[in-house]
Amino acid sequence: MADVSTTAPATLRGVVPPLLTPLTPTGELDVPSFERLIAHHLDAGVDGLFVLGSSGEVAFFEDEMRDQVLREAVRIVAGRVPILAGVIDTQTRRVLAHVRRALEIGVDGFVATAPFYAITGPEEIEAHFRAINEAAGLPLFAYDIPVCVHLKLGADLLVRLGAEGIIDGVKDSSGDDVSFRRLVSLNKLAGSPLTLLTGHEMVVDGSYLAGADGAVPGLGNVDPAGYVRMDRAAQAGDWSTVQKEQDRLAALFEIVFQPVGKVGPAAGVGAFKTALWLMGILDTNTMSAPMTALEGENVDRIRTVLTALGVDVVR
Amino acid sequence: MADVSTTAPATLRGVVPPLLTPLTPTGELDVPSFERLIAHHLDAGVDGLFVLGSSGEVAFFEDEMRDQVLREAVRIVAGRVPILAGVIDTQTRRVLAHVRRALEIGVDGFVATAPFYAITGPEEIEAHFRAINEAAGLPLFAYDIPVCVHLKLGADLLVRLGAEGIIDGVKDSSGDDVSFRRLVSLNKLAGSPLTLLTGHEMVVDGSYLAGADGAVPGLGNVDPAGYVRMDRAAQAGDWSTVQKEQDRLAALFEIVFQPVGKVGPAAGVGAFKTALWLMGILDTNTMSAPMTALEGENVDRIRTVLTALGVDVVR
Amino acid sequence: MADVSTTAPATLRGVVPPLLTPLTPTGELDVPSFERLIAHHLDAGVDGLFVLGSSGEVAFFEDEMRDQVLREAVRIVAGRVPILAGVIDTQTRRVLAHVRRALEIGVDGFVATAPFYAITGPEEIEAHFRAINEAAGLPLFAYDIPVCVHLKLGADLLVRLGAEGIIDGVKDSSGDDVSFRRLVSLNKLAGSPLTLLTGHEMVVDGSYLAGADGAVPGLGNVDPAGYVRMDRAAQAGDWSTVQKEQDRLAALFEIVFQPVGKVGPAAGVGAFKTALWLMGILDTNTMSAPMTALEGENVDRIRTVLTALGVDVVR
Amino acid sequence: MADVSTTAPATLRGVVPPLLTPLTPTGELDVPSFERLIAHHLDAGVDGLFVLGSSGEVAFFEDEMRDQVLREAVRIVAGRVPILAGVIDTQTRRVLAHVRRALEIGVDGFVATAPFYAITGPEEIEAHFRAINEAAGLPLFAYDIPVCVHLKLGADLLVRLGAEGIIDGVKDSSGDDVSFRRLVSLNKLAGSPLTLLTGHEMVVDGSYLAGADGAVPGLGNVDPAGYVRMDRAAQAGDWSTVQKEQDRLAALFEIVFQPVGKVGPAAGVGAFKTALWLMGILDTNTMSAPMTALEGENVDRIRTVLTALGVDVVR
How many angstroms away from the CA of D209 is the closest CA of chain C? Predict the structure, then answer.
């Protein structure tokens, strides 16, 4: 990957959490909470931030809101780590519009999914990433997330696009670590053109062992320091520390299984926001409409998991 | 359903084709072709037009393009039939932005899908339609299209929302006519609060027999007159004419199975555009990026189907 | 299709219900109930019986039980209508073993699905039907049931196998009436080599209008006479009677939506068995393990649907 | 888990390959090849053998063939390692028949999937495993293989059944290592009632790091010694050796991606059989009907992968 900015390392790798978007009770960006959340990440030593990803509720925001989130993130981070901007939308033309606006705001790279809503085949998927790369002129990560776009990006396609310089990396949120392992193998054979990041907070340990370059863990919003420690241990080949950190983070991840009667981000992102609200970092656990915030026993169960693990809660 | 406009019938029913969006070779709206296409529909006697649906390539257009398509449609139709506007986007907030802009342009009703990309449950789906209804203040059709949004709207939910006045109708593109038949039954039991339109051009005959109020046939762009004749025959209980028209339209529908190496709208909408281009109604068969237009043998095979059925082609 | 037996019509068409398998409280074949159920069908004038289908709980029975069910059916029917035997199993070799045993027992035709459990491609599916046809030497229906085997039989393949004489008909339980309509069209173009039966009790009316040759309705166990009347009306082109019968049967089909906490055949076949038990035709509503019989409020709700429609219940 | 036999360790763990079933050109069990294949495994030091699994083509075999395979395996292994028998079939009653016959033949434990073909819910799945356990009286592994049975066994259910003593272990072939990681966590919290084996040959390294007790690798038929070395290294905490072995095995696994025009076991098991045939251990690479053996360039490409990795080939 090319140098992503004057402040960025020559090669982005390591822990790049998908930044949550804190909201006010009426659903607008909560800037003071956003500042505290970003400080929480930077204090932990994360290697970059992925703004406007699935965990950032990107699919719920119209253009103005997306721009505000990016602009504030850029202002607050102030070049201390590179910022990857999610340019996630149904089809090419809409994605290119997001790319243009993000370039004006000033980001360090992009993350884009395959097209969705309208069914597309291999020819269209490839044309989609080529068009984004041409418009972006900055590092581009392909975001493999079948649970949202309902197709899987094949390892062969990804490595071929990498070898051609169309994409620079992959954020793998496919839940299919067999395929991720093959992606690592093929990438290595091709001279490692791609930076490979796993999006699965539960199996970062195995991903490092398999050869991943880093992680984009949603749970990293709650405990970025744990993921940074795991990353540094993996770099040092200290696998017993890797294992210990992952075991603890796996126990912490149980917060996402606590909400009853919720599915998708209303449960998962809802649990992350609720934990950060209980920890005093966010002022609310508000979710974007049509989702509603966790409350009552759903909050209590998350508090119980946190306190059992020794996390300080203030509410 | 309430009166949809001064020019609209008290109850929209019958043939409401999902209008294609003709494009210039560079992908912009081709206004002269759009005018000819709308005339083709109005001359055939269609009962309404659904602008910016899946067949209209809505998922490929950014806001400015959506607005231009709607504005031109409204101008060209000039109140002769009601216009339903597709307000199709990932989640509530984005859909509401489309509703606001369409209200300014001046349409007669709305069509909205369930939320997509981010997984949502029954609670969120219901909140989504309630929010749209509140903002719209005009007839609202729920668009059931699992192939795009990857969830099925249940008949019980739809009829309940209908009975409450949250939605006024359903466009069923689920491909699940067993479920459509049940929707008809439950709607009748509830006093028929919903107008039920099928989106499947191949089974409009059976849908009428089951009790559908009309159709939204993509193939109706190519042969609107055939669908209008079938509708009038069904209204008159003349089932042998219904059968004859549907048989002919089913043979015509074979055009969508001719393209080799294409999937989704690149094949289906591509075939409709190619047929209309061969018939001289559109000036190109251009598709939105990342799709490409049909060419070569894919065009030849469509021409063969058309001429075998006696359709006049000019190219 | 060839003459299926000395007692069979030259071409099987019309109403061929998938016969339920009545069980004793300990899960064995309940012969007296089976006799009453078959009499219920024959009295209604059905055109054939499909024994050991999905509704017959075939997947739950080991070979001995399958043989007993077939043998008793053959004995009770005594040649009055043709019997199609389901030879449903995971892969070719197992299906062929069922074919051999059924041939010894003496049936009039076979019904087989695509292979399942192990994933197979087009080459294997075709080889599978060819092998069955070669061993069977009797009319063979391809059973298209994606909900059980998780793949859809394409209309092109089916018509090609029909034209070659490998299969004689299709039982379509795909729930995809768009595809069924195309199957009808392609079959007609090929000279109608296939007898096309729909398995969807809710849309038999539309299937007849589209050109189906008959139906294999699970609900036909409860009300075979209704389906026979609809079939005769469709043959006579009396579509208002077709519509009236289907409307009534659609209301009756609501029994399958009454069971709470049940899915699949435990709900659907369970509802059919419960209705027949309430009507005094079956002595129990026992289901095969691991399913359990409907009881309590689930039975009450079915009784309510039946009595609202004027069906005589004795329990 | 209870002592599985006089020859078995108190707790089965480690490498338990799913034994392939060598076939003669006419599709019968090839006993001499079977003897060589089992010797290949035992020489490598495997900890057990899983006979009649998906890789063993169980779904393709009728009862007599299943019995023969089991009987020969028991005879050849002669108590040197425990034998787990796959009792894989559509529903409970059929599975129980396989259990009874396998008990007579004499095996050391069982492996069973969730019910398939007919849709079943949580109540039935649980009743299914309870019935098998009651009949088996030997260690029972739940086989989680959604790609074949089209449902996923939840970690909560599995751990609960383990805590009750209904099942003794899990063979996870779900491809969902996020869920596997959670299964490991919940099992540990419950006092580790379950032995957890991964079925994914590509991610055994990460599975060990996560806490797996062993592996059931299909590729282990080709290179059992590699998996045994990886297992012993993992036990010793020697993660750099684990990584080295997995990297080499991942390169070897590329054989399954070489066949063109094949899917499912025809590609995967076909590649394993072809490799062992090229290595001189099997006399043919015959597959069960309706599958056909790999040939021509598909064989050449597999030979190329093998020789590139230094594997001796004799054909």
Answer: 30
The shares of helix, strand and coil residues in chain B, as percent rounded to the nearest 5, are 50, 10, 40
* Residue C9 pLDDT class (50, 70, 90 cuts): very low
Q: Is C125 helix (H, G, I), strand (E, B) or coil?
A: helix
Q: Is D209 in contact with A242 (Cβ distance < 8 A)?
A: yes
| Tens digits of pLDDT across chain B (315 residues) | 333 343 344 479 999 999 999 999 999 999 999 999 999 999 999 999 999 999 999 999 999 999 999 999 999 999 999 999 999 999 999 999 999 999 999 999 999 999 999 999 999 999 999 999 999 999 999 999 999 999 999 999 999 999 999 999 999 999 888 899 999 999 999 999 999 999 999 999 999 999 999 999 999 999 999 999 999 999 999 999 999 999 999 999 999 999 999 999 999 999 999 999 999 999 999 999 999 999 999 999 999 999 999 999 999
Chain B interface includes A57 (CB < 8 A): yes
Q: How many CB pairs under 8 A join C and D?
A: 139
Q: Which helix (H) or strand (E) holds B128?
A: helix B122-136
A116 interface with B at CB cutoff 8 Å: yes
D313 close contact with C: CB closer than 8 A: no
3-state secondary structure of C264: helix
Does the pLDDT value for residue D10 go beyond 90? Answer: no
Residues of B in contact with C202 (CB under 8 A): 177-178, 181-182
Domain-wise residue ranges, chain D: 9-238
Find, among B246, B248, B305, the residue nearest to B271 by Cα. B305
- Percentage of residues in chain C having pLDDT higher than 90: 95
The rounded Cα D198 to chain-centroid distance in angstroms is 9
Say yes or no for a CB contact (<8 Å) between A93 and B27. yes
Residues 6+ away with beta carbon under 8 Å from B185: C247, C250, C251, C254
Q: For the domain bounded by D9-238, which CATH number is listed?
A: 3.20.20.70
CB-nearest partner of C97 from D62, D115, D266: D62
Q: What are phi and psi of B112, to 5 degrees?
A: -135, 140
Task: Check residue D113 and report its DSSP letter.
Answer: E
- A193, A162 contact by CB (below 8 A): yes
Kindly report the backbone phi and psi dihedral angles of residue C141, in degrees, each rounded to the nearest multiple of 5, phi listed first. Answer: -105, 130
Using an 8 Å Cβ cutoff, are D279 and D312 in contact? Answer: yes
Chains A and B touch (3+ CB pairs under 8 A): yes
Amino acid at C40: H
Provide the residue count of chain A: 315
Per-residue pLDDT of D85-139, as tens digits, reads 999 999 999 999 999 999 999 999 999 999 999 999 999 999 999 999 999 999 9
The answer for residues whose C-beta is within 8 angstroms of residue C218's C-beta and 6 or more apart is: C17, C18, C55, C199, C201, C268, C269, C272
Question: Which are the contacts of B68, defined by CB distance < 8 A and separation ≥ 6?
Answer: B29
Q: Are A118 and B54 in contact (CB under 8 A)?
A: yes
Neighbours of chain B (3+ CB pairs under 8 A): A, C
Please tell me if residue A308 touches chain B, with a CB cutoff of 8 Å.
Answer: no
Contact yes or no for C92 and D131 at CB 8 A: no
Measure C96 CA to nearest chain D CA, in Å. Answer: 9
Task: Tell me the percentage of chain D whose pLDDT exceeds 90.
Answer: 95
Query: Would you call D246 and A200 a contact, using CB atoms and an 8 Å cutoff?
Result: no
Residues comprising chain C, all counted: 315
Round to whole Å and give the CA distance between D99 and D97.
Answer: 5
CA distance B153 to B34: 32
